Amino acid sequence: MILADTRSRLSANDRQLVILLLSRGSAVTRARVERQLDQEGIDALLDHPELFERLVAVRGMLLPSPALFYYVAVRHLLRGTGTDDRDLADYLAAMLLEFGRRDRAWRIDWNDDHRHQYVVDILDDLNLSSGSRRFKVMVHLGNYALWLVGVFPDYIAARRLRKGGPGIEYYELLGQRGYQMASDHELADRLGLEPVFRAAAERFTQARRALNRLSDQLLFPNCCSPDRILRELEGPA
What we know:
mainly alpha
C-alpha cells in the first residue's frame, strides 16, 4: 500500500545536501539555515522557494535521493497551483516513486497477479472485488488515472487524436471518483489516509497540473505539442 511517507525516507545525507544547497558556500548562511532546521524542522527548509531549482541544477556526485527530489518537486509544483498541502505532496511523491518501478503502475499491489493497462480494466475489477481488495482497487483507480493524465498527458492527447480515446476530463472524473470512494472507506481512516484521499479527490485538477509541469519540464523536456503549449497557458486552478 502506498503511504504518505516520502519525508520519512529522507536521510541525514539528504538533510546535509539541503543545507549545502541553501547555504551556497556561505558559512554565515549555513549557520542561519542550521538554526532554522533546529527551530522549525526540515519542512521549513524543504519549502524554501529556491530549493527546487537548486536541486534541478545539481551536478556531479552530490545528487539528491529520489525521495528528496520528488517530494520537493511535487511540493513546489503543487504550491504553484495554489495547493498548500504537505501530506498530499508526500503521498503523490510516494506514488511517483512506486509507479516508476517496473510494472507497478499496472498492478494494485506488488503481490497482485492482475495487470491493468486500461482504466476500464480497473473499473471491471472494482465491480468484482470486495473487502480490503476493493479498497485497494479504489485507490489504484485514483492513482493510475492521475499517473496517466499527470505524467503522460501528450500520450493521452495523441491517443485521443489517433484513436478517438478519452481525454483529460474522463481521467479526471474517474480519478476523483476513485480517491473519493477510497476516502469514505473505513481502511482509509485506519491507515491515516482519509484526509489525503479526500484532498486528492478535491484537488485532482491541481495535482494533475503539478505533475504535468514536472513531466514537461524534467521528464520529457524535448517533446513539443499543441497540448503542451495549452498546458503552459493554464493558470492555477
